[in-house]
Design brief:
With about 475 residues, this protein is of the alpha/beta class. It contains 17 helices and six strands. Strands 3-2-1-4-5-6 form a six-stranded parallel β-sheet.
């Protein structure tokens, strides 16, 4: 420890805090890496959480706190208690809304840090008495504080709109003529104000800059359709991470720098993968009526043909290969445990069973994987869209439970459809398709599903959990000789 000789208490304390921040950042990185696999995801979340605790505790010992422990404790309590209570009570069906809202809070926190730094530097004429002080916003620090504030504010307001749409509090799409040009104008105005602030910090301009950034987040999210919400959530996740990373540089906090950039990079990659799964470009997510179309859709021919649970059970009993396609309706009905029970009954009868997962099924990335993992479905039974699509043509029975837009064949056949061009699960190629749904309503994109009218499709109406439970009962009845 000779290297500590000659250092002041302030320097030693600062070094220890920085070392703790770095350790926390390493735990963030390793935790996120472990989240890449369903097998280690839970341990990864715990590890990243421990890193967060380390960073929070280390902040109390930072030499620049100047005794403001009461404010820190109050902030921790205000953030922790409501999150703990709501996290315990939230239903799985409401998880996407919660993720969107909490992600927005992260972006809002980064924006608040940036705005506070800008306002503090404006109001303190001695802020740059020491050019190396964190309160001194010169050069790159000013630029990064502005960028972090901009994208953090966009993430906050955009995530609130996404939450409102997912929670049914707002129409799924809101458009008007020339909307994309107006959005671009708002964004350009915010950039111009930011450029002005680089040369001269001014309180009214800072306030206007923040307000324009928030407004752009709202306007950017309003026209986006519900079917595209997983892409939006991953995009705002990336923006929040980047905002946190930039503000970490402004504060000289390595934990925020590293963790923010890792989350930003991961979120950006996920956004690209989600956009690819929807056959969209990132620019169309930001500046166009994403998922929208003004043309009239083609008329769907045929009729919806109902079927009884006993007849579906007979089809399953005779089938050799079954593919199950879960969707948001399964989450609403909390039917994942019953679906796994049905799967076990089929495997017990030597049937080949697989789960087909569309990249944007549900309301957030990985939504269906989380539900199936909660029910105990083995990971080797779960297949991604690219791997499972060729197998539908050899599938005897495909069961769709709660999925809608991700199995709609008009995405390949109708250029006027809002989801045209989106890769889908090729359920229509199965020899027989059974769709379990509560009623005759449309999906989150608000359009009719041509699959439901196909000759090889039958509909089993009812609550998802109840319908699957009836299938299990009927299968057992067939074995006992009591089938209808």
């Amino acid at each position: 420890m000779d290297f500590l000789n000659g250092l002041s208490r302030h320097d030693i304390q600062s070094w220890l805090v920085t070392a703790s921040f770095f350790a926390a950042a390493v735990m963030f990185i390793l935790g996120i890496k472990r989240m890449a696999s369903p097998v280690t995801a839970r341990a990864g979340i715990v590890q990243a959480g421990i890193g967060m605790v380390v960073a929070t505790v280390a902040a109390f010992f930072h030499p620049d706190i100047h005794g403001n422990y009461g404010l820190i404790i109050a902030a921790v309590l205000v953030g922790t208690l409501p999150a703990w209570i709501s996290g315990k009570k939230v239903a799985m069906t409401d998880m996407p809304q919660m993720v969107a809202l909490y992600n927005g809070m992260g972006g809002g926190s980064a924006a608040a840090i940036g705005a506070s730094a800008l306002l503090g530097a404006t109001m303190d004429p001695n802020a740059c008495a020491d050019p190396n002080a964190h309160a001194c916003l010169n050069g790159s620090r000013t630029v990064l504080a502005l960028i972090g504030t901009l994208i953090g504010a966009v993430s906050l307001s955009g995530s609130v709109i996404a939450w409102a749409k997912l929670d049914g509090r707002m129409d799924k799409r809101f458009t008007f003529p020339g909307q994309q040009y107006i959005n671009a104008l708002f964004f350009l105005a915010a950039v111009v104000l930011g450029a002005f602030l680089v040369f001269k910090l001014d309180v009214p301009i800072i306030v206007a800059f923040v307000c324009l950034s928030l407004l752009f987040g709202v306007m950017m999210t309003l026209p986006i359709g519900g079917a595209d919400m997983p892409v939006v959530i991953s995009l705002f996740n990336a923006l929040t991470g980047l905002a946190v990373g930039f503000e970490g540089y402004v504060l000289g906090n390595p934990a925020l720098m590293i963790a923010g950039m890792v989350v930003g990079a991961a979120g950006t990659l996920l956004t690209q993968l989600m956009a690819k799964a929807m056959n969209r470009s990132i620019s169309s997510v930001l500046f166009s009526n994403f998922g929208g179309s003004s043309a009239a859709a083609q008329e769907i021919k045929g009729s919806q043909k109902p079927i009884e649970a006993s007849d579906v059970a007979a089809l399953l009993y005779l089938a050799d290969k079954v593919i199950i396609v879960p969707g948001y309706g399964m989450a609403v009905a909390q039917a994942q445990h019953k679906v796994w029970e049905l799967t076990q009954q089929l495997i017990k009868r030597d049937k080949t069973v697989k789960f087909a997962i569309h990249p944007v099924a549900g309301r957030m990335p990985g939504h269906m994987n989380v539900l199936l993992a909660e029910a105990g479905v083995p990971y080797d039974l779960i297949a991604d869209m690219e791997d499972i699509n060729p197998e539908f043509s050899t599938c005897d029975v495909a069961i769709v439970i709660g999925a809608n837009d991700v199995v709609n064949p008009v995405a390949k056949t109708d250029p006027a459809s809002p989801i045209y061009g989106m890769p889908i699960l090729d359920v229509i190629n199965a020899r027989q398709s059974i769709v379990i749904k509560r009623g005759k309503g449309t999906g989150f994109a608000g359009i009719e599903n041509a699959l439901f009218y196909a000759d090889n499709t039958k509909l089993l109406y009812g609550d998802g959990a109840d319908a699957v439970n009836r299938l299990v009962t009927e299968l057992k009845a067939i074995d006992s000789g009591g089938g209808h």
